[in-house]
Amino acid sequence: MSETETHSISVNGEHRRVAAGMTVAGLVAELGLDPARVAVERNLEIVPRSTLGDVKVEDGDDYEIVHFVGGG
User: Fold this and answer.
1) Where is the signal peptide (predicted)?
2) Is the pLDDT of residue 69 over 90?
């Protein structure tokens, strides 16, 4: 068994394991997304962008993350 504790979460309907203690900002970065260009819903509640670095990912969380793309 690994010494590193992980949490089991869902991101946009896909199962994922992440390190315990990770913040939502860390999750967004791990996904390769720009935190200034995403909207995050955690367990059916919007996570304000200003709090992404404060909110911890918890075991069983369900995330929907939308990445905004500019263009014309």
Assistant:
1) none
2) no
